[in-house]
Amino acid sequence: MTAAERVEHVGRLRPQLVRYARARLLNPAHAEDAVQEAMLAAIENIESFSGGSSLASWLTGILRHKIVDCVRRAARDQWQEMDNDGNAIEADGPHASGCVGPEQLLARRQLWEALARCMRDLPVRTADTFVLRELVGMNTAETCRALAVSESHCAVMLHRARKRIRATLDPDWIAP
What we know:
The protein is 71% helix and 0% strand. The chain is mostly helical and 176 residues long.
């Protein structure tokens, strides 16, 4: 694969990277920023990609580092986004919600907040496994390559994540 083909492939992987970043950061603006930074870093360093893993795994690794940078920046800055009128913008406010009613928006927000709490309580690699498999939609082989783990270890981490989430979340949010 030539460098130009790799750059084109990087662009096609953007939706997958956005899903992963949004699941980890829960703030669409920060997720978009992290993905853009990761894609820029990947394109700038595309020649260093050796092909030892899939391009998706390589990009996910870069994105994971950008997400950590974003979390550190957010913890350091502790600022609130504002609109042009000086009102606070919420991460899942009206612009992110589409056409749903206030009850659905509240339920969605509560679910995501509860899921975020669950993710924070999980070991990082276990949370990453859950996010890649369940929220991003990677298959087992892709997840294993992205996290550099065996399939059996991936299955164990995924089982533990699901079990802890089921035990923590409101039973009404968990589909039978």
